[in-house]
């Protein structure tokens, strides 16, 4: 039998990494395949991704984007057209060298990202300012042959979406870059209950080939940073490399300006590590595959299953994602199982509740139980799901704020990193040397320069130079 | 400028293959990439696939299936576990031999289909009869390194879905196989307006590794056959090869029984060749990305754009997929453009219509125009879309019936094939030799043995043996 007994998982404070692995495995999100670093997304894990996709895809389309599908293979010569880009990605490409029994004349890499494919296509279809903007997006998997791997956080193959847009002017492209960054930030906060820091990456940390990389950075329960999504501004660098030109309104030849942006199944890792507790997953209600699990109490008693089934139907009709477990397992087993799986609300109904015309709803986030009159079930569930979301967000926000410290000197940074961890906010002079020194001495990388800058003056903790830029440092996944 | 003038396309009767290529290119469904046989699905083409996915996915889920995602790479040793299967697919696998700069110890093929991956996973998760059935489906792309390629009909990489299910008994697995075949048949007929012949493949034509392959066969406008979807029954062959066992209700070890089933973007090729005419695409209303195109007439005149915009909004609010073209292009250009793109209904409104409180709706399938009172627009559009669907289905059904001939002798078969083409229905003795001879002499392959068998007796047209099996022959894509 597929293992169904609810086994204990490692406590977060004992071994956070092991806790994470326990949760993804025992909640049935992931299984291992025979190829290292390539994971199987099981129904429960994939359903979370589907729910994320549905929300994001609708958002993208509302903003005018269209979906396309590009080939998964890139000829080596095409990948090499943009110098920085190939340097960044070639070392981790998987290469196809044979088609059937025939050796290929040119080897092909499985896409690690598709800028080059989109640019080749754009060169064919962009000719006039009337063809702009082009707002394309693609849902697909990409492959990066990394040395180490962890479920959701670092897969050799992972599912994502990649937006690739072309615009007539630099201003428009920059607006798009920021628009999509904000789209991701809103999604993280309003749908995943994950508060973010919106910011810009340093030159060192930006995407290979981009002029500017925007990022949303989240703090996990263990106070490490997770880069949840990025949005890149390319200027006309790729357009020049790929010979993409258009006739502008003044009948002049011009290069279009480009963006790309993406989020991946890594977000699932993010919600696990932001919200989960020692009893397992806690899923944000707006993407939980099951929002309400109905569990009949003393289900052998007359009328219980019917009453529970009626509630399930009513909630389904009201548009909630609801399931009922009427299996032979004990009530205790079921309660623990759906706690492990992070179902936001558990609805119980038994003979005593029926007498009183009520049911009991237990929240996964707080454990709190509420008795609800049967005719108020729909409105209560709606309200509770919103409250669960808000509480999860507030908890995560508190974690982020409580664990973000300001520092003026390198010594202070080191003390914070070694004692309590979390994000350290400092000033930065903008020099690569200081950024490298911070990594070397304090073990932190720059996370981002937040979009909301204080504007105050201060000193770079490394070189002591007077400067204004605020920057976040942290240890990242 | 992206080419927008409406160019003439080759007539179907002059060169059907060229007509097809013209249509997919000029309607903006497909573009070529730099890798032979790998195509770009442009927004209009991909949107058709998305609409197909939405309907099918909901149908699959209603039947209890769950989506998963398996890795795209299969180790050679895993592919080789089932003998017939590897023989069928190894010759057309694309092989990954390098990860970064490192030569792999074992080469990996990009999945041509995923039976082996699902079986490896099922071996991990199926232990008891309580774990069955497993009803998994996957949406992904697969790769087959074929020599020739044609848009939609034969891609080296194509998008599809592959269902893979495991059942406690042979009966249940066989029921699932037929259920999914009927699911595809209903989808083709009720959604794509493509009438089908439901049947079973011969031993020669069945899927490599399957015990039995069910198929839905459609007839294109040029009277050739298109295999639109297949559903396979595997028995316990793979289960034995992969060591998948479970404890049954009597506490005995047993092998589960398996199915797989799939449809792909090939269906888009099917609807183009079933419904299109010399003016371009004709899209079935239920999957058309745009069901109604609103075109303002004399749009510079006061109030026209507002009136047209109001109609567009009303139709969008009523749940139709509707767009408006208010570009500078002439009315004639727009009419021809959306005819080429196969939009089922064109709604025109100009100053004269406004005076009369009406608009004009033109059908793509018949060209028929109807004047509609403005307050009846929603109900008329709803009715017309259904009528367009029904008429498209009826036309295709007539084409299928008019071009299906019965024959008793090989000579008759040859005469039919050489004179008028289409499907030939005969009796068949069941021998491979007769099937091969039919191919050799008449140039036709067996399409299927229809599920609805007449039960009458007759002679095999090749060997003359008395037999009862009805079978369809044809030239296939
Ligand atoms: Zn400095
Ligand atoms: Zn015969």
From TrEMBL, chains A, B:
Cell compartment(s), UniProt: Cytoplasm
EC code(s) of this entry: 6.1.1.15
GO molecular function, one term: proline-tRNA ligase activity
Protein's UniProt keywords contain Aminoacyl-tRNA synthetase: yes
Top EC class, one word: ligase
Transmembrane feature ranges: none
One Pfam family of this chain: HGTP_anticodon
Domain of life: Bacteria
Coiled coil: none
Chemical reaction(s) catalysed: tRNA(Pro) + L-proline + ATP = L-prolyl-tRNA(Pro) + AMP + diphosphate
Domain Aminoacyl-transfer RNA synthetases class-II family profile: 37-284
Assigned keywords, A-Z: Aminoacyl-tRNA synthetase, ATP-binding, Cytoplasm, Ligase, Nucleotide-binding, Protein biosynthesis
HAMAP family per record: Pro_tRNA_synth_type3
Physiological role: Catalyzes the attachment of proline to tRNA(Pro) in a two-step reaction: proline is first activated by ATP to form Pro-AMP and then transferred to the acceptor end of tRNA(Pro).
The family this protein is said to belong to: Belongs to the class-II aminoacyl-tRNA synthetase family. ProS type 3 subfamily.
PANTHER family cross-referenced by the UniProt entry: BIFUNCTIONAL GLUTAMATE_PROLINE--TRNA LIGASE, PROLYL-TRNA SYNTHETASE
Name assigned to this protein: Proline--tRNA ligase
Organism: Dysosmobacter acutus
């Amino acid at each position: 039998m597929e293992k169904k007994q609810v086994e204990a998982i490692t406590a977060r404070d004992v071994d956070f990494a092991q806790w994470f692995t326990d949760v993804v495995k025992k909640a049935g999100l992931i299984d291992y395949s025979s190829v290292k670093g390539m994971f199987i997304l099981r129904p429960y894990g994939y359903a979370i991704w589907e729910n994320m996709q549905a929300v994001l895809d609708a958002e993208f389309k509302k903003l005018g984007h269209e979906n396309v599908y590009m080939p998964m293979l890139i000829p080596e010569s095409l990948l090499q057209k943009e110098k920085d880009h190939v340097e960044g990605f070639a070392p981790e490409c998987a290469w196809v060298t044979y088609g059937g029994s025939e050796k290929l004349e040119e080897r092909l890499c499985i896409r690690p990202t598709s800028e080059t494919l989109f640019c080749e296509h754009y060169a064919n279809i962009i000719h006039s300012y009337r063809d702009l903007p082009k707002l394309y997006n693609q849902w697909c998997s990409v492959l990066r042959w990394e040395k180490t791997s962890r479920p959701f956080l670092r897969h050799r193959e992972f599912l994502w979406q990649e937006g690739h847009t072309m615009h007539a002017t630099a201003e428009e492209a920059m607006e798009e870059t920021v628009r999509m960054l904000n789209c991701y930030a809103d999604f993280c906060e309003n749908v995943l209950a994950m508060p973010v820091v919106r910011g810009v990456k340093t030159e060192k940390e930006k995407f290979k080939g981009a002029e500017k990389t925007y990022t949303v950075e989240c703090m996990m329960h263990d106070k490490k940073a997770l880069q949840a999504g990025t949005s890149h501004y390319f200027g006309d660098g790729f357009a020049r490399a790929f010979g993409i030109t258009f006739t502008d309104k003044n009948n002049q030849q011009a290069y279009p300006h480009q963006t790309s942006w993406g989020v991946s199944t890594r977000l699932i890792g993010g919600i696990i590590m932001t919200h989960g507790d020692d009893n397992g997953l806690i899923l944000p209600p707006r993407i939980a595959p099951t929002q309400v699990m109905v569990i009949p109490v003393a289900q052998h008693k007359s009328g219980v299953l019917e009453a529970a089934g009626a509630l399930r139907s009513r909630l389904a009709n009201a548009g909630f994602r609801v399931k009922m477990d009427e299996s032979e397992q004990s009530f205790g087993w079921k309660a623990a199982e759906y706690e492990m799986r992070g179902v936001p609300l558990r609805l119980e109904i038994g003979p005593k509740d029926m007498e009183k015309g009520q049911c009991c709803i237990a929240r996964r986030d707080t454990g709190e139980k509420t008795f609800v009159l049967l005719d108020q079930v729909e409105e209560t569930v709606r309200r509770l799901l919103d409250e669960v979301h808000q509480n999860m967000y507030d908890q995560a926000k508190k974690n982020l704020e409580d664990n973000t410290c300001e520092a003026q000197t390198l010594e202070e940074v080191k003390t914070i990193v070694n004692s309590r961890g979390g994000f350290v906010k400092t000033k930065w002079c903008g020099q690569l040397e200081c950024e490298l020194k911070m990594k070397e001495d304090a073990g932190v990388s720059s996370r981002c320069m937040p979009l909301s800058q204080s504007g105050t003056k201060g000193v770079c903790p490394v070189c002591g130079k007077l400067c204004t830029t605020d920057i976040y440092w942290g240890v990242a996944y």
